Amino acid sequence: MARCHVCFRHCDIEDGTLGFCGARRAENGEIKAYNYGKITSLALDSIEKKPLARFYPGSHILSVGSFGCNLRCPFCQNYEISWSEETTYFAENARMLSPKELVELALDTKDRGNIGIAFTYNQPLIGYEYVRDTAKLAKEQGLKTVLVTNGTAELSVLEELAPYIDAMNIDLKDFTDAYYSKVLGGSRKQVMRFIEEAMKYAHVELTTLIVPGENDSEEEIRELSRWVGNLKNPDGEGVPLHITRFFPQFHMTDREATDVKKVYHLADIARKNVKYVYIGNC
Q1: Contact in structure between 195 and 245 (CB atoms under 8 Å)
Q2: Between the CA of residue 195 and those of 5, 60, 150, what are the distances in Å?
Q3: What is the pLDDT of residue 92?
Q4: pLDDT tens digit string along 245-261?
Q5: Cα 221–224–226 angle (5° rounding)?
Q6: DSSP helix/strand/coil, 221
Q7: What mean pLDDT is predicted for residues 42-67?
């Protein structure tokens, strides 16, 4: 039995089995990243798709994903690789790329506007060792490294990654403990601590998905934006907030897509507290 230290769950994992996230495994009393170097998704995306609005706008970035996640968002758009119980399939069929090979691939796409590597699609922090090893090599080659993350990790994980990460988009999915625990299976307090520490080292932008009937009240966006409005990036600028529209999918097909007017209205409320507010999926 070994205990994982990555997130608030602190899973006790028996040898030969996986933790809650499906990506960390106990072997001989030690926890290892079961998904290390196992790639399920690879694409050259615009930086704005991450979304990052104020980090090298107009550029592209090589986006890479593996499998597993430590949350259980019922609206997950990448549930096949994040929520899936078919971990064995991904472990056996994923494309293997060493950190060196991934960096070489990123360098080969520089002539297409690529500035580096973004770890995204699934939750990259549950396989932070691969992110760390790759980002270190990328930095040596003058490439940028981006994390697209739910921010559900202990600060010890961030400390290992911080010297090599240039930008992050972190989900701040809601501003109540009830939503995080009952709907997402997460910890709002851990995410908030992660955000506060991350912005000391890297350019940070935040994303809030507006789900009808869950986190779409005016009061909630006021409270959330008041907190975000006090955050500062390393350059002294405020932390941007992306407010995005929900579409019914996966386990949450029982409601309509967020009304576009509602998204714009909530964004206007947020702008009273946050300098940079962007709208997505509309």
Answers
A1: no
A2: 18, 24, 10
A3: 83
A4: 999 999 999 989 999 99
A5: 105
A6: helix
A7: 98
Question: What is the distance of C-alpha 184 from the center of its chain?
Answer: 14
∠ CA 273-245-179, nearest 5°, is 75
**Nearest-5° Cα angle at 149, 71 to 19:** 40
Domain positions in the chain: 37-280
Indicate the SS3 state at residue 235: coil
Quote the DSSP letter at residue 226. Answer: H
Average pLDDT over residues 79-90: 82
pLDDT in tens, 122-131: 999 999 999 9
- What is residue 91's predicted lDDT score, i.e. its pLDDT? 79
- Cα distances from 36 to residues 32, 95, 125, 150, 152, in angstroms, run 8, 11, 11, 19, 19
Q: Mind giving me the DSSP string for 78-144? A: THHHHT-S-HHHHHHHSEE--HHHHHHHHHHTGGGTEEEEEE-SS-GGGGHHHHHHHHHHHHHTT-E
Q: Residue 74: helix, strand or coil by DSSP?
A: coil
Instruction: Name every residue whose Cβ is closer than 8 Å to that of residue 56 and which is 6 or more positions away in sequence.
Output: 47, 115, 144
Q: Span 37-280: which CATH code?
A: 3.20.20.70
Residue 74: the pLDDT is 96
Question: What is the helix (H) or strand (E) element at residue 59, kind and residue range?
Answer: none
β-strand partners of 252: 249
* Neighbouring-strand partners of residue 116: 144
Give the span between the Cα atoms of 252 and 274, in whole angstroms. 29
pLDDT digits (tens, 9 = 90+) for 196-250: 999 999 999 999 999 999 999 999 999 999 999 999 999 999 999 999 999 999 9
Instruction: Give yes or no for residue 146 having a pLDDT over 90.
Output: yes
- Cα separation of the two ends of the chain: 47
Distance CA 167, CA 161 (A): 11
